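Sequence in, structure out. First:
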Amino acid sequence: MARDAPVDDADAPNGAPYGHIQVLGPAQRFIEAAAIAVVTSTGLYLVGSVYTDAYYGRMSIEVTSLDLSPPFITLQAAHALESLLEYPLALIFFYLLYRVLTSRIPRLRSWYDRARQRFGRLFLLIVNVVIVSPLVIAAIEAGINAGISSTSSVLSEVTGLMGSLGSLLLFYVIWLSFGPRQVIIAQIRQRKLIPIVLLSALYLLDALIATANGAAVDAELLLTGDADSSIEVVFTMTEGVRNTLPSSGLLLVTARNGNYYVVERQDSPPSGRPVAYVVPFDSVDSARTQRVNEANPQFEDLVDEIMDEFATPTAP
């Protein structure tokens, strides 16, 4: 029986369907890349804003008075980079470890299959709970810490939302184990919307809580003079200006918008209500600054070595 000749794309009416697919592929990849870039930049800005608010708020400084630029706020997310990468790196590590071990040791793969067949839904539940347990435990800890210590209204809302999403995620993995009988990693690889949204939202909220806690710790190090960036400042006021500042024990936080922002040095552990001062540039005749701690000589030696390497001419 004769077969029809294949229709060429150029001869297809109203354009070939395959041509549409070829055009849609690059366009879809571009849209996905743009969406990832927007979500990433927005997430970094959100993390940076939480860090700056918690950092300066811990030192009794209103962050809005500093008028920080969006790029500067986004860069503050670098302080929380370690906490941001912990969970995804752990997932990638254990997934790659599983793939390598099962490919090198076939018994592990057969053991996994036998355990899945023998224990069924219970085994899948254990696997899914292990995968999401870091985020669920973080949600529980955030709720406990919020009940013990007072937090800002924003962090209280974040903590409450984190608890709700943690409960939803736990119920979802239970349903996933006893219903479709799948591992949540497989659903993510299939780009299922619900697990991706739940994990991403809970992961971001956990990162925000960790960022706020890290910012408070960094601020306390500066308050006590233990931070490497702690700088003591002594002001000489302009003639005719009333000096209401302490004569010593002031630490410089920042200088922005025509003002010095300083805080009183605290003993460890620092007070929960430190005293901060806003000193206008116009009221200061001179400001004497000095590092509280000795500079790291190893870092200076490294910089000197690098500069010497650049300055030393080399033979052609």
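Second:
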Amino acid sequence: MEWEQPAETEKKKGRDPAQTGSMLFIVLTVIVLLCYAVIYVNPQIMFNPFKPPAVQLPTPTMAAMGEVPTPTPPPTNTPAQPFPPTWTPTATATPTNTRPPTATPTPTSTPGPIPMFTLPCDPIFTNQTLYEGGEGWWSGVAGEVATAAGRPVTNVTIRVWDDFGHVWETKPGNAQAYAEVYGPAHCASGTYAWWEQFLFTSCKESITVHVQAISGGYKSRVITFNTTGDCSKNLVLVHFQKNY
């Protein structure tokens, strides 16, 4: 005889509310503990409602820390380069047989013929003391003609002229009195071959005078000068030296 088991009452599906609440409490507790741990590590985290005041640490400066000098690297010892970096051979032109230049003789100046008449010194401006009563008006020119050896020369003509058309000719030896007054002290040779020519102007006037020595067909160069217009220098001495 079989006994029939009584039908169990089918349990109601689903969890118990008490069990679910316990589980939720545990999860929330773990989350709260994690939040506290994070806040402990970083109190400035954004979800911490009680953030402590932030501490601003002073920024260290170079003056506070002390400026550390920048080390200067020692100079690099570069060895001298004994050879050029690049040596490029250049083509050398083949020498050709070139004739040496011909030496040109230096031209030498050929001295010209010595003039027949030269001046032993420049014209001398002095005072006329040979004549009395000529102060303030007398004006003239005189001189000596001699050889280089100091011998008198009388066979020449002395021509004197001015810019007013006056022309005079005289001969040495016609004014021998000058030899005693104006001798070697005035560049003369001490001979008697003196000549003289009075000018038709006052010693207070300055005029241009020309003097030339003539012998046969030869004429010396023209000696030109201006009188001073000073009566203390109313005599001009012009000496000629005859060379041959």
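Remark: DSSP finds three helices and eleven strands in the chain.
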